Each structure stands twice: as C-alpha cells, then as structure tokens.
C-alpha cells in the first residue's frame, strides 16, 4: 500500500511542480493548445504503463501522466466557463460542469466493466488451451489489457482537443514571465479574502475525496471482498453514484444555499473517514456510497464558486492554484496513510485521515461561511508586469 501511494505521490509532486505554470501557460499560450499537449502526454503515459514491469517503469509513466494532467486541469474548466461567458450563459456553468463530471464517472464505470470483460474472456481462453498452472502464471500479463485499451481511449482526446474553439476573453495575458506566475498565485491566496477561502476549502475537500478513492479497494479487501468481479462491480457502482450526484448538483445547491452546501461538505466528508474506521462491511459500504454522493455534489459546486469571482484572464491559473494545493496535500496525506495502513491497520489510517481532514475542513468551512456574502463580488487582478 505504501508503494502504491508513493507512486501516486510522485504523480502529485509532478503536478505540484507544473500545475501553476501550466495554468499560466493556458492563460498565455491558449487553453486549446495546452489541452492538446496534455492529451498527447496522456497517450504516452498509458503506453509506458502498459509495457512496464516494475516500480521504476510505473513511476516514469506516472511522471508523464502527471505532466499531461497538469496541462489539462484548470485549462478545461477555464475554457468551459469562458465559452459560456462569451455567450452570456455563465450561470449554466454549474450545470455543465456537473454534466462533465457525471459523464466522466459514467465512463469510468463503463470502462471498469469492459476491462473486467476483457480480462475474464482472456483468462477463459488461457484456461481452455493450457494447464491451470499456466493460467495462474499469465494473470499479471492479462492485467495489461486494460492499459493497452486505455491508450486507444486516451488517443480520442487528441482530436477532441483539436476540435475545440478558443473563446475570446475580455483581456489577454501579454507577458509570460515567471514573475507574473508568482504574482497571480500570491494574489489568488492573499489578494482577496473570499477567493482565498474558496480555494482553500475546495482544495482540502478535493484532497480528502481523492485520498478516499485510493483506499476504497483496500477497504473491500480488508472486509473479505477480494474477488475481482465483485470489486469491479462495486467500483462501477461508486462511479455511477458520483455521476448521479454531479448531474443533479445544480438543482440541489440552490435548495441548500451556499451555507448549507458548505456545511454538508465540511462535516460529511471527514465524518465518513472516521465512521468507516469503526465499521464493518455493510455499514462501511453505506458510508462509502454516501461519501461518493457528496463527492459528486461537491466537485461542480466548488469550481463554480471559484469561477464566479475570478477574472477571465487568470481563470486557468487560479484553478491551477486550487489543484496545486490538492496535490501537495495528497503528496503528504497519501503516503502517510499508506504507511499507517502497512504498519498499523486500515482502520488506524482512516481514523488518522478523518481527524486531519476534519480539522482542515472545519477551519476552512467556518471561514468560508463567515464570508459567503462576498461570494458574488468579482475579484479583479491588476498586473504589475504589464501595462493596464
């Protein structure tokens, strides 16, 4: 478990290093070009994963995938919001972001079922033609099939990115200096109280939901579910749960209000960690599915809160600052919880994670709710390195 989380931490460190520069690159060079670059790196990363045999090869693949992901994250949401803004439909962002998140999770659910079908089909063919000992020996090789399929799926993103049209923005960044990157990042975290609290709360929540995703399968195994078919079906069901919540988020949020939405996310996510640390299989699954409902609700809502008050010209960079904080926290929390799992137990690791995320989310959530009256006031960035 520690090695698995170290691999993910390596990916997160790469994203941490490149997240903000890539967001700035999207603002300067263009969101479309940055998305094309990220899509190409995704294809290369999965190809390397498919042909690798050990930790080093997997780490190289994670580094390439981290570069690709850093190029895509921030640029995609910024491009969507500005495309809607150009048409006077920015109020629909929450709905559209929810649809994207929903479709992504439905695709992940479908992909897991397709992968299971491919693996089962291949294992049956091996068992039919060879002694059972050979079939067992070939199982690790069979698990490569989804990676080869993923190369083809990832390749679809390249022509998809090429087909996009760059939206016109009210302003354009003219100076691509490193100082400008630093200035925007500092501004995002210190220039406005509401923007800072938005970013921090969204980032702490994102880290907590990302970490749980990597411990779900471990929870299944600890509770006696190690059958591949059952694990895949549960994983598909979890992703469908996220999809339903994301798709419905734009309808639910107005009923709860900003304060109610933030309170729900603040308490339910860390509480799920703590309750799962004391739960068996049945109640643990109930809590896990509830967690995934909140995860699906939170993603489009929290991105919308940030976009509402952010200038178009720095939107991708600001969203990348959010993703930067998610990844730097995950690079610490993931291996720490992986170590706690290996040395002590999964229950200890979940309890540790619950306490950490409860403290972070509670502080950020209280501050967010206290200043929510400012959440619709636009925040304007003034560059020190460019003429106004």
Explain how this protein is built.
The protein is mainly alpha-helical and 388 residues long. The chain has one domain: Growth Hormone, Chain: A (Up-down Bundle), CATH 1.20.1250.20. The protein has helices at residues 2-29, 31-51, 55-72, 75-86, 93-129, 132-142, 145-162, 178-191, 193-222, 228-277, 281-308, 315-343, 346-370. Helix 2 packs antiparallel against helix 7 (145-162). It is globular. The N and C termini lie far apart (52 Å).
Secondary-structure map with pairings?
Blueprint (H helix, E strand, L loop, with lengths): L1 H28 L1 H21 L3 H18 L2 H12 L6 H37 L2 H11 L2 H18 L15 H14 L1 H30 L5 H50 L3 H28 L6 H29 L2 H25 L18
Brief summary of the model shown:
The protein contains 13 helices and no strands. The protein is an all-alpha fold and about 400 residues long.
Order of helices and strands: HHHHHHHHHHHHH
Q: What is the SS-derived class? A: mainly alpha
* Helix amount: over 70%
CATH class: Mainly Alpha
CATH topology: Growth Hormone, Chain: A
List keywords for this structure.
388 residues, mainly alpha, Growth Hormone, Chain: A, 83% helix, globular
